[in-house]
Design goal:
The chain has about 425 residues and is α+β, with helices and mostly antiparallel strands. The chain has helices at about 15-20, 30-35, 45-50, 65-80, 110-115, 125-140, 155-165, 190-200, 210-230, 270-280, 325-335, 360-365, 380-390; strands at about 5, 10, 80-85, 90-95, 100-110, 120, 140-145, 145-150, 170-175, 180-185, 205-210, 245-250, 255, 260-265, 280-285, 300-305, 305-310, 350-355, 375, 400, 415. It folds into 2 domains: about 5-255 and about 405-415, no CATH class; about 260-380, 2-Layer Sandwich (Conserved hypothetical protein from pyrococcus furiosus pfu- 392566-001, domain 2), CATH 3.30.1760. It contains 13 helices and 21 strands. Strands 1, 4, 5, 6, 8, 9, 10, 11 and 12 form a 9-stranded mixed beta sheet that branches. The protein has a 6-stranded antiparallel beta sheet with strand order 15-17-16-19-14-18, with helices on both faces. It is globular.
Length: about 425
């Protein structure tokens, strides 16, 4: 089995991408999806968030929700809004957000390589979220939410993708956030074979976003293999369920934004006592304005209308790939020992603000009185994420915020 292989994508018919593409299913709640899909009958949200077409009190995990997704998919196929390619292809996918551009490959990736950790993970998954994606895949007989992967940048792969994007795209649309999504079909047999070979030569791929979708694909594969063998149909490893939908970007083009923290109180400390405790682990400097940390080990602190720059003392930076992450340094030297928040996953005193919202959002949350302080971080680097995955470790919660995000509906992977 190859690490990746081409597939016949289900995608918008020519000229229909703008009507179809939608934000990833997991970045919107049901109410937001209803608003976004209003007046847009062909939005992919009708497939990825099908509860929007059912009564408002419908449980989004109820069986009728998954049936509605399948009904909506059949309707979009019958109306010619979505069409499946007639042969396996690869696809170049470009995201443009402001001045940032990244170009990757849409491919079906091997579940077996996911299972053996050649496609590497860095997060735990929740069974309930896995269950949801399993039900969605089974109801549609398709994988519609692409997993965002990274490959260690490889010059020849990058050059092939650049060459593939020299003509007008086969699909082109702009999402609600202003991100432009473009896709080119790669069907030349020699190019397809060379891309497969180049990826087979890579040591690993890395999940950036989509751990639950990956885990669900693995579960569906295992179940279908057992069912096929039980039915006497055999199992070759080449069945479509042995692969899952991915978009793979070179690691040096991917952009991770800061993932900042806001905290409700000083855990009973006075401001002076809190600042005094900080001095044990950090160099503390007054700052003239908002602090966007320029390098790892630097942090911004917004407290009582003032910004300060914090710099971790070098002796406190451990060698291990998880402990040296900025999110770990902040947690282990400030949030847990000083503010008393030992479990940021569950403690209601802490919240997380994606860098896409800017530092002004941190000031707003504190100035309103909702929060007592805000902490800005330097973005996690892709190299650090890859080091954690290579060590078979897990990133702390809320370590990465990837932008721009993929669109649902650009390409789906139909199962046999």
């Amino acid at each position: 089995m190859s690490l990746i292989r081409p597939f016949a994508a289900l995608r918008p018919a020519p000229g229909r991408a703008q009507e179809v593409i939608a934000p990833p299913y997991d970045v919107l709640n049901t109410a937001e999806a209803r608003v976004l899909a209003e007046g847009r009958p062909w939005s992919f949200l009708h497939i990825s968030k099908p509860e929007i077409d059912l009564p408002a009190d419908t449980d989004p995990y109820a069986p009728e929700v998954y049936r509605k997704a399948a009904d909506n998919l059949r309707h979009m196929l019958a109306e010619g809004v979505l069409k499946q390619d007639d042969r396996p292809c690869y696809y170049a996918y470009r995201l443009i957000m402001g001045e940032h551009t990244q170009t990757g490959l849409v491919a079906a990736a091997s579940v077996a390589d996911y299972d053996t950790n050649r496609i590497r993970k860095h997060e735990f998954t929740r069974p309930d979220k896995e269950d949801d994606r399993v039900r969605q895949i089974e109801a549609l007989n398709a994988q519609t939410g692409p997993v965002l992967l990274a490959y260690p940048a490889q010059a020849e792969v990058d050059a092939i993708l650049a060459a593939a994007t020299q003509h007008a795209p086969d699909q082109d649309g702009v999402g609600e956030s202003g991100v432009r999504h473009t896709l080119w079909v790669i069907h030349d047999a020699a190019t397809v074979a060379r891309l497969t070979e180049l990826f087979d030569n890579l040591p690993a791929l890395y999940i950036a976003d989509g751990h639950h979708r990956s885990a669900a694909a693995s579960r569906v594969c295992a179940a279908r293999k057992v069912a096929s063998l039980a039915a006497g149909a055999g199992h070759t490893g080449e069945e479509s369920y042995n692969y899952f939908l991915t978009v793979i970007f070179p690691h040096d083009q991917m952009r991770i934004l800061d993932y900042n923290r806001v905290v409700k109180d000083l855990s009973g400390l006075s401001e002076a006592a809190f600042l005094d405790k900080l001095a044990g682990a950090f160099a503390v400097e007054d700052a003239p304005g908002p602090v966007s940390p320029a390098r790892p080990g630097e942090f911004g602190l917004y407290l009582s209308g003032r910004w300060r720059k914090l710099t971790i003392k070098p002796a406190l930076i451990p060698a291990d790939p998880v402990g040296r992450l900025d999110v770990s340094l902040l947690q282990d030297n400030l949030i847990a020992p000083i503010l008393g928040i030992a479990d940021p996953r569950r403690d209601k005193r802490i919240d997380f603000v994606g860098g896409i919202r800017g530092l002004a959002e941190l000031e707003k949350r504190v100035n309103s009185g909702e929060m007592a302080l805000a902490l800005s971080l330097h973005p996690t680097r892709m190299e650090d994420l890859m080091a954690v995955a290579d060590a078979n470790e897990v990133m702390p919660p809320k370590s990465t915020w990837f932008e721009p995000k993929l669109a649902d509906g650009m390409a789906s992977h139909m199962l046999d």
